[in-house]
Amino acid sequence: MSVHQQPELKAAILGLPDKEKDKLLIRLINKDKMLIKRLHFQLLEDEADLSDRIDDLRERLTQLFELSTKSIRNQAHQSNIIGLTKLIRQANGMVNEHEKITKHKLSEIEFRILILQQSFEHFSVVISREDLAASRKLHQYIAGRIKYIIGHANKLHEDLRFDYQDDIQTLLQASYETSIGNCLKQHKISKDWW
After folding, report:
1. In this structure, is residue 194 part of a structural domain?
2. Would you say residue 157 lies in a domain?
3. What is the spatial distance between Cα 57 and Cα 27, in angstroms, rounded to a whole number?
4. What pTM value is reported for the model?
5. What is the span of the domain harbouring residue 62?
6. Within the chain, where are the H helices?
7. Is 35 helix (H, G, I), strand (E, B) or coil?
8. With b meaning 16 or more CB within 10 Å and e meaning fewer, what string describes 106-121?
9. Residue 61 domain-assigned?
10. Contact by Cβ (8 Å): 120, 168
11. What angle do CA 113, 110, 44 make, to 5 degrees?
12. Which of these, 94, 92, 95, 117, lies nearest to 106 by C-alpha position?
């Protein structure tokens, strides 16, 4: 039950002395690690720190894919397909955390594009496999990520969308060369964006 649903409790909490409210606030914040990271970014960091965070995450994502080529072979076997699916999900989890902390939409779009570019670059044979159930799950997941990217890119100002046009178009073309194109058609996403 929410405090907003209990007006008497809300009034009593707001009526507490500031020192007591501060103690309660700190105790509550300590229970939420993501909130701590978000507050640290919001209260203690500036544009230079954001730029450093972006550069750091770009480097970590690139390294993640390069290191994964040792454990995931670019061969159309089920284990590689499952491995690539896990890798893309892991990378997207890193971007989710970055977005929750910074609320920076442009870098979020850039990173989600980067993940798919790295996937197609390093694992084109794995992605092109079409006949396994794991392939279909991977293709549906990639199509969902592309839909997400396009949806968020469409909300940007026209000048900013232009910056992503070539990357998104390249992803669409590469996807339509595999059965990911069928999944994109189900999402009503055409071969040409914008």
Report:
1. no
2. yes
3. 30
4. 0.90
5. 46-186
6. 7-14, 18-30, 33-44, 47-68, 78-102, 105-122, 124-128, 133-154, 158-176, 180-186
7. helix
8. ebbbbbbbbbbebbbe
9. yes
10. no
11. 145
12. 95
Look up residue 122 and give its amino acid. Answer: H
Q: Tens digit of pLDDT per residue, the chain (194 long)?
A: 787 888 998 899 899 999 999 999 999 999 999 999 999 999 999 999 999 999 999 999 999 999 999 999 999 899 999 999 999 999 999 999 999 999 999 999 999 999 999 999 999 999 999 888 999 999 999 999 999 999 999 999 999 999 999 999 999 999 999 999 999 999 999 998 87
Chain Cα centroid distance, residue 91: 7
User: Six-digit token pair at 120?
Assistant: 């197609």
Q: Is residue 33 part of a domain?
A: no
Return mean pLDDT, the chain: 94
Q: Structurally, how many domains does the chain consist of?
A: 1
Quick one: tokens of 114? 């980067």
